[in-house]
Write a structure and sequence with these properties.
The protein has about 240 residues and is of the alpha/beta class. It folds into 2 domains: about 1-50 and about 105-240, Ribosomal protein L4/L1 (Ribosomal Protein L4, Chain: A, 3-Layer(aba) Sandwich); about 55-100, no CATH class. It has helices spanning about 35-50, 110-125, 140-150, 185-190, 210-215, 220-240, and strands spanning about 1-5, 10-15, 20-25, 35, 130, 155-160, 165-170, 175-180, 200, 215-220. The strands form 3 sheets. The protein has a 6-stranded mixed sheet. A two-stranded antiparallel ribbon has the order 1-4. Strand 8, helix 4 and strand 9 (about 200) form a beta-alpha-beta unit. Helix 3 crosses helix 4 (about 185-190).
Length: about 240
């Protein structure tokens, strides 16, 4: 369990990646704690619930074939052998193989919601949140979204070795990005749906697995405001 105290300050960027403002966020809105074990348990639950569970193998008694003993028990000089359908033989059954099963299970709702808050808070603490002043696009075109992501620098990396080593700029196009919107935004969704590693989701539909799956979280001022209002309302409902 990790306690998060103090006000978090997140820079607000324009489309060129230049800081134009700063937003202060109270960690208490997201619970003020980060429990890695709880987030791990919730992610495992999401992954398990996605499994189809349709795997099926034939065991010794289910494989088609004769049940006769291949040759007599003694006198041949060979090792003892019984049915041709044994798992030791090619084409035989599978020993203790998987059968269809349901992997679905659910953790308490409060735990799942708390894990989502912790995942979002961890993004702010690790400085993996990119806050834009405005996320609107002139048209629902992939090139518009690609240009927007390409224009925001998130760091540098060294390319080459020795005398040929040089610094290369890293942008949001070089990583995976979860774009949060205040509500369902068809224009943003259509502009980003063909970009690999990019997903658009309303902030009300965030969950622990989706937030942690993507390396960067891209929010606009409006999306951040919607997110904060959501958790302020939840916090007020709990205290009253």
């Amino acid at each position: 369990m990790r306690e998060v105290t103090g006000i978090l300050r997140v820079p607000v960027l324009d489309r060129q990646g230049q800081a134009v403002d700063t937003v202060e966020i109270d960690p208490a809105l997201f619970g003020g704690k980060i429990n890695r074990q709880l987030m791990h348990d919730v992610v495992l639950m999401y992954l398990a619930n996605q499994r189809a569970g349709t795997h099926h193998t034939l065991r010794r008694g289910e494989v088609a074939g004769s049940t006769r003993k291949l040759f007599r028990q003694k006198g041949t000089g060979y090792a003892r052998v019984g049915s041709i359908r044994t798992n030791k033989r090619r084409g035989g059954g599978t020993a203790k193989g998987p059968k269809p099963r349901d992997y679905e299970y659910h953790l308490p709702k409060k735990a799942v919601r708390a894990a989502t808050r912790m995942a979002i808070l961890s993004k702010f603490v690790d400085e993996e949140v990119v806050l834009l002043d405005d996320l609107s696009l002139p048209a629902p075109k992939t090139r518009e979204m690609a240009a927007l992501l390409q224009g925001i620098t998130i760091g540098t990396r060294t390319v080459g070795e020795g005398e040929q080593a040089r610094e290369q700029r890293l942008t949001l196009r070089d990583t995976t990005v979860l774009i949060g919107t205040p509500q369902l935004d068809h224009m943003i969704y259509r502009a980003a749906r063909n970009l690999p590693g990019v997903r658009v989701l309303p902030v009300a539909e965030f969950n622990c697995y989706t937030v942690l799956r993507y390396k960067r979280l891209l929010l606009s001022r409006a999306a951040l405001q919607a997110l904060l209002q959501k958790y302020q309302a939840e916090r007020a409902a709990v205290t009253t």
